[in-house]
Specification:
binds (5S)-5-amino-3-OXO-hexanoic acid, binds zinc ion, alpha/beta, two-stranded parallel sheet, TIM Barrel, single chain
């Protein structure tokens, strides 16, 4: 099969808060609609978080996930990828509840403990729809995004072994690749490995093109042909680094979780608009996108009929 590019779309996340964009999906219906539209635009993997429908506060509650997962599954063939990163102030047990219950084909798995600074966003506005928003952003100044070896072992066992869920390994720095290799060497992670290079998060590696080249060189050395990579460029880096990834033989991640804009100074009206925009780049490079079933074949996924929702 000639190379096909897998587009992941990350619909809402837990990084951005409702006041930052009126287009950020919050309720289960908004999340479902934007996920379905993103799949119809060409995303073959949908990376999903949940939020409290009333306040927009990030929620680990499986009951909230279950208000949109079946709708998305009924309307698309896209691969559902549930976050285990959750949001700030969630412990790891909380963070994995939804994926444990839903047994999705994919889940994210964050490969190292790190700082995760969201507080610079406080400078962008003084008025907030919800009181929790500025407090949430300020709390990131002293937040540790905990992903210890023990946490990773737990997630691999309780989601991977138990449910047949495979992973989007989120690597925010070079050291995270060596942690991933450690688990491969222990036989706890088997290929094909799907690595999400995350660049531009405050606390992780900077979004410089030569850092992406270094991440890929390191992954080539550690994993040979056992891996596929994708690139998540945070904020304004989303399209440039996604384009670089495609040119380097990689896959791409877009979505309002990672970037609220469609171009400098213009908020994206929805997730699907970013999918369409990266498709224009792929078309320009004469690259075809992978269908959900082609993504399943590339990544060795269990099938959309094997989930628990
Ligand atoms: N928020 C992204 C930078 C996760 O959900 O597990 C990384 C992410 C983590 O999507
Ligand atoms: Zn996420």
């Amino acid at each position: 099969m000639s190379r096909k590019v897998i587009i992941t779309c990350a619909i809402t996340g837990s990084v951005h808060t409702p006041s930052m964009s009126p287009h950020l999906p919050v309720t289960p219906d908004e999340i479902a609609k934007q996920a379905i539209d993103a799949a119809n635009a060409g995303a073959s993997i949908l990376h999903l978080h949940a939020r409290d429908p009333k306040t927009g506060y990030p929620s680990p509650d499986p009951d909230v996930f279950m208000q949109f997962l079946p709708k998305i599954k009924a309307a698309t063939n896209a691969v559902i990828n549930i976050s285990t990163g959750g949001g700030m102030n969630m412990n790891v047990r909380d963070r994995i509840r939804a994926a444990r219950e839903a047994a999705p084909e994919m889940a994210s798995l964050n490969m190292g403990t790190m700082n995760f600074g969201l507080f610079p966003a406080l400078a962008s506005r003084s008025e907030w729809k919800h009181d929790w928003e500025p407090e949430f952003l300020e709390s990131s100044r002293d937040f540790v995004f905990k992903n210890t070896f023990s946490d990773i072992e737990t997630i691999l066992a309780e989601l991977g072994e138990a449910n047949g869920t495979r992973f989007e390994f989120e690597c925010y720095d070079v050291g995270h690749l060596y942690t991933l290799a450690h688990f491969v060497d222990r036989g706890l992670i088997k290929g094909p490995i799907f690595i999400q290079f995350v660049l531009g998060v405050l606390g992780g590696i900077g979004a410089d093109p030569d850092n992406l080249a270094h991440l890929k060189r390191t992954a080539d050395k550690l994993f040979g042909d056992q891996y596929q990579f994708s690139v998540l460029g945070a904020g304004r880096h989303q399209m440039p680094l996604g384009s670089m990834s495609a040119a380097m033989g990689g896959n791409v991640r877009v979505g309002l979780e990672d970037n609220l804009y469609i171009k400098k100074g213009e908020l994206a009206p929805d997730n699907a608009s970013q999918v369409r925009k990266i498709r224009e780049v792929l078309d320009g490079l004469s690259l075809e996108i992978a269908t959900p079933d082609e993504a399943r074949a590339i990544l060795g996924l269990k099938g959309g009929d094997k989930v628990a929702f």
